Amino acid sequence: xxxxxxxxxxxxxxxxxxxxxxxxxxxxxxxxxxxxxxxxxxxxxxxxxxxxxxxxxxxxxxxxxxxxxxxxxxxxxxxxxxxxxxxxxxxxxxxxxxxxxxxxxxxxxxxxxxxxxxxxxxxxxxxxxxxxxxxxxxxxxxxxxxxxxxxxxxxxxxxxxxxxxxxxxxxxxx
Length: 174
Known about the structure:
3-stranded antiparallel β-sheet
């Protein structure tokens, strides 16, 4: 008996291959899927039952449970937005699937944490050892740059102190 469990949750790449050694040939196979073949391919996770009957009419039942691997999932996805004094940072952490994991960001970075980021769109494709993938898209918007409009009113005469300078903040964060 050779069993290959599905590589990823929802995948249809599992298989079961029988190796019958006792009884008299030829053998007949009857699976709970309706198949009459010696092996099953392209299987998802689930329970499979086969009845093997030899030339003498002797039956043997075999039960096989194909298991789905742990789902690859995010444990942490945190963002520190860039501002006028610091660059942005994105930190990720996952669990499940099968290690080792490979991170690939759209900027070419290959770590769970990326730094020195400007505002923009970032895409991460995480792949586990079995080829299962997990994607995430995020946008760093940054903190708006301080912008101001100055409004000046000249003094009424050269010796006067009634001039005025007003500031109107257009954007930024207090």
